[in-house]
Amino acid sequence: MNIMNKLTLRHLWENKRRTIVTIVGTIISVAMIMAVATLAVSFMDMMKRYTIANDGEWHVQYKQVDENQVDIIMEDDNTESVILSREKGFALLENDQSDRKPYLHIKEYSPEVFEYFSLELVKGRLPASENEIVLSTEVVEKGKVDYQLGDQLSLDVGQRVMDDEEAGMMTLGQYDSLQMGEITEKLHHTSRETYTVVGFIAPPTWVPSWSPAFSSIVYLDKSMVTTESPVNASVVLKKVNRSIYENASELADKMKMENPDEGVSFHSELLRYYGFTNNDRLANTLYSLSAIIMSVIMVGSVALIYNSFAISVSERSRHLGMLSSVGATKKQKRNSVFFEGAVIGAISIPIGLVAGVLGIGVTFLLLNSFIDVDDVLGMNQELKTVVTPISILIAVLVSSVTIFISTYMPARKASKVTAIDAIRQSADIKLTRKGVKTSPIVRKLFGMEAEIGLKNLKRNKRKYQITVFSLVISIVLFLVVSFFTTSLEKGLELSQGGYDYDIQAYVWGSDQENIDSMYVAMNGMEDVTTVNRVTEMQLASMVEREFLSEPLQEMVSNNKDHLEDGKYRYNVNMVALNEENMETYVTENGIDINSLTSSEGIQAILVDTIRYQDYETGVFVETKSVQTNVGEEFQLYFDDWDNEKKDYLGDMTIAAITDKAPMGVYTGNTGEITVVVTDDVLSTMLEKEERINWNTYFYLNSSDPVKTHEELQELSGNMGIYNVYQSRQRDEQMILFLSVFIYGFITLITVISIANIFNTISTSIALRKREFAMLQSVGMTPKSFTKMINFESIFYGIKSLLYGLPISIAIMYAIWRSMMYTFHYRFELPWVDLLIVVIAVFLIVSAAMLYSISKVRKENIIETLKQENI
Length: 870
What we know:
The chain contains 28 helices and 23 strands. By secondary structure, the chain is an alpha+beta fold. The longest helix is centred in the C-terminal third of the chain and has 43 residues, at 725-767.
């Protein structure tokens, strides 16, 4: 070890407090990087396990392949295993006591399905030949059919079909609800099959609760595959990488598939958690967002460590000047700082890695102890801390690069320190009149203490800049991560189906006359929490071009043939709510109910926001359906298509505008206006025009949707029921679980930011102890001293906000632009977060200053003036 390194170690040892502060700051930074990496890996691992548990482990599926094509798939170098499957059909269960599930759904699988899909054998054995079958335990438990091991089943197996005079013959599958009412279903193309019951399995997780059939599996192997009887081949790959889509396309060409686009599908949800997607727009969104957020983390980490080294070099300037006076070269002084960084890194990186993993591990342990993840988040997987060599390597590399960047500028500065500059302290302290000049307004408005405080900041410009830089980074970190979270949730909201209910019930035929009594009956059901009765009718309105939505403005600009006499025809979806539902709706949206009833005529609430996915680009869009204001009027028409004319019905006045539709109402169509009116308006419209078609829907939320579904079927046979509970629940669970991780990250960023500010300010104050002792020695009172410090805090806050807010807004805009690859919605500033930041900056700076000053006040003036190390 050379003499410079020995002197550096001695200096670190003599300045223990500053060294400890630097090490702690670096440990926090490394721990943050490792925690983020561990969070990401653990989250992806849990989502993989969850997806596999629910949908099976496979990566790519080739549909309707024959025996030769199966051979090509199996012989592929990257194929680990192939699960063969084929639909056999449905059979009516004899003596079935379940009105909801009269069928047995029979599907053929190769034995590999039990290895890669979450199928639990409850008793018996797996099928080993084509005439053997395993049944779901629900057949006995819910269907009350007394099947035993060894029973022989003779079944008429066919396809479920619905024969509708208008729609024609429609094939139904396992995921389609039981069709009842005026249009019923039947089995078509049946054949007699005989099976021996060899086992019972737990109900498969991928079968929805509303399926009208119990599951069963029969044996299938490659020898049973022919050109006339093709199968679906679900492939488990040896290596999952970005070439999966290209390789699948090449394999499809090799198999000479007629339509690869329809014949090849991917397990997109599982592949997403491997980090791969074939959606270029989604990939661009993910990559750009990842780059932005990782850059923010890097900058935050650099700031945290850089502050410590910058203050260190500032404090060591006299020491480096003395070394320069006895012959130390620029290279030796620069390497002295790099060596200091290496020592700090050697101590901090291992501790930081362990601290990051332990922090996430303890968090997961507490969550698993205090909450049931399956009940709260709907996921049948525990939170597990997963650490991979890649995540450790990334954390070490990022931390090392961060420490190097943090030491580079201070090292360059150290190499330029001369003996004269160090003795005069000219680099950090400005003693010229121009350097410390302040505006006379400051003294007149705030007093002498404010002027002295501002002069102190200007005189110690380097330390002042470091503190402001730290505050700016903290502001940017919090606002950017918060905006990132909001943007991610917005994207998830747009990508979901928009379902805010569990069950939709549609009434037709004679039961239309019993709507009110059915509404009362639904409200009286034990598990029903909310019932929204919606009556919809379709009208039309001719809208001036200036009021059109942005997409329509662009469309008519390119092709004016869409306009009639300068106006565009809008569909008007008029939604009528009964008195109870209307009161709830206007209360939730902060609308005065009197605005709908105080004036005569057609008074309506406009839902002006639509959300939809552009079918050409795949972009999720949020925009205004029409650009208008409260008080504007729209002429309503009834389209008389038979006579090719429009019948005028009256003027509709916009009494209020909101972006939230009533529960169950879909507002995702361009060229359509959705308005909400009272039942009285509905009656008025029907009196004016009897030809208007209208439909009534019930949208229900329930604590037990399956039970409520059964009760609705018993309530009326002429009711169409659509249960969306399971699919909506999974979407909401995804958002909720993702929010847990993201808000945890925001909490971590907030804590890091506060620690950063305290670290910087406390170190800066500690380095100024001699300055404060000098002020006290010439007569500054404690009151004036406190006032001076308060003004310094205000100056710090104002300066950091002047820089931090514009930078944050710029990065937020960049994130919004990244989201535009996949989603389209208006850019809006998070005003609440901005207000929180403004208040928090002044509170945190003041707290840090007061905390540091409370320790300085305990120092002896004489001893402090003589003190060299901190």
